[in-house]
């Protein structure tokens, strides 16, 4: 068994354990394998071990990798998620080559993604990135502006608003990790209460996956626990 396959098994076991701890239904959490900085060979190894969804942060690196993987495994049916910062002049290749975008934080970017989504493809799945309190990076919409943005994005024809995403400030203690994810979950429940048909909470990475699953994550984005440590992030 490859190291990547072993790591994937361990991550799946961790997800199952956290689901049981939370008393949630089995199979409720999807694993997004974050392959940024790793090559097509790493994606192939994970795909051969059954992994289907991959997350990428850097557009040019991602486009090269998607093409390389498609050439080697043409019918793998992989799903690509963009999870990095988005510059407005780079929306077209994102709209053309990805299935999901987790990092929408402005209406202008959403409009461009919708306009540029090719007609033959299914709507692009969208999560809004939220700047929950204590987040060190300045990315994400402020909670006060979230509802207005969600209503705008939900109305765009070639997008499908699926839910929310956040990257909380790294915290060592489990309870602090949980508190940050609980904030995102509360915002998600409010929007659902407003009638938006959301089904996705994208939260939790290698170091805080358990707390995220206990707080209701439906997608965890895991990189280093699967592929090993990176030289840059
Ligand atoms: C890199 C990255 C991840 C994965 O982080 P790990 O700590 O390697 O699991 C998840 N989400 C985003 C947005 C990232 O940039």
TrEMBL record:
**Residue limits of the Alanine racemase N-terminal domain?**
24-230
The UniProt keywords, alphabetically, are: Pyridoxal phosphate
Establish whether keyword Electron transport is in the entry: no
Q: At what positions is N6-(pyridoxal phosphate)lysine found?
A: 36
Name of one Pfam family that matches: Ala_racemase_N
- Listed InterPro entries: Ala_racemase_N, PLP-binding_barrel, PyrdxlP_homeostasis
Name the PANTHER family for this protein. PROLINE SYNTHETASE CO-TRANSCRIBED BACTERIAL HOMOLOG PROTEIN, PYRIDOXAL PHOSPHATE HOMEOSTASIS PROTEIN
HAMAP family this protein is in? PLP_homeostasis
* Family that this chain belongs to: Belongs to the pyridoxal phosphate-binding protein YggS/PROSC family.
Q: What's this protein's function?
A: Pyridoxal 5'-phosphate (PLP)-binding protein, which is involved in PLP homeostasis.
Q: What is the protein's name according to its record? A: Pyridoxal phosphate homeostasis protein
